[in-house]
Amino acid sequence: MLSISVRSQLQTYLQNIRRPVELIVSPGDSPASDEMRMMLNEIASLTDRVTVVEEPQDDDRRPSFSIRQAGAKPCIQFAATPTGPEFSSLVLAILQVGGHPVIADRTTIEQIRTLERDYHFETYISLSCANCVDVVQALNMMAVINPRIHTTTIDGGIFRSEVLARDISVVPTIYMNGEMFGEGRSSFQELGARLQDIEMSMKAAMHAVGRP
Predict the structure, then answer these.
(1) Domain residue limits at 29
(2) In the structure, how many helices (H) and strands (E) does the chain have?
(3) Interval 62-72: pLDDT, tens
């Protein structure tokens, strides 16, 4: 599935993993599921620090897979086989979950690290969408920085019924905790600033009614 040159480059990148990573697969019975399995197994064959595990998960989206430190709670999920531009998002997520440092604006990193509430993001993408990559990678980085953030990248081509049900016409489209959060391209700094504003507003509202 991966070309010889890509396998060689990927093997070099995977040497930056510092702690074991597990790719937890929720398979389906479609060709997309077979493609997903093939890609993940091929990646795992290039390093002994990545393992593919098929494990029952409480998730209606199949096929999908999560990325986690070995034995830890998953923070990043793909309901997609991230090929094309999104392949870099997958590789970067594996590296960062595996201990490779997140390299981004330090102020935004600290903003994300100090968030105290739970945020569950769902991002609908197209695998041919160049603008989706920045959003997917930004949210994945946030999930690595703060365990209260969970993010799922969803291929609208596979989960067409969700796209129709939510009347999604633009990619990327982001939902946060089940509510529309944004459409189109956004940077790590922009998303971080929005989350900080949301958290500060919620704290102010709670303080106004006498609750911590």
Answers:
(1) 4-208
(2) 7, 8
(3) 999 999 999 89
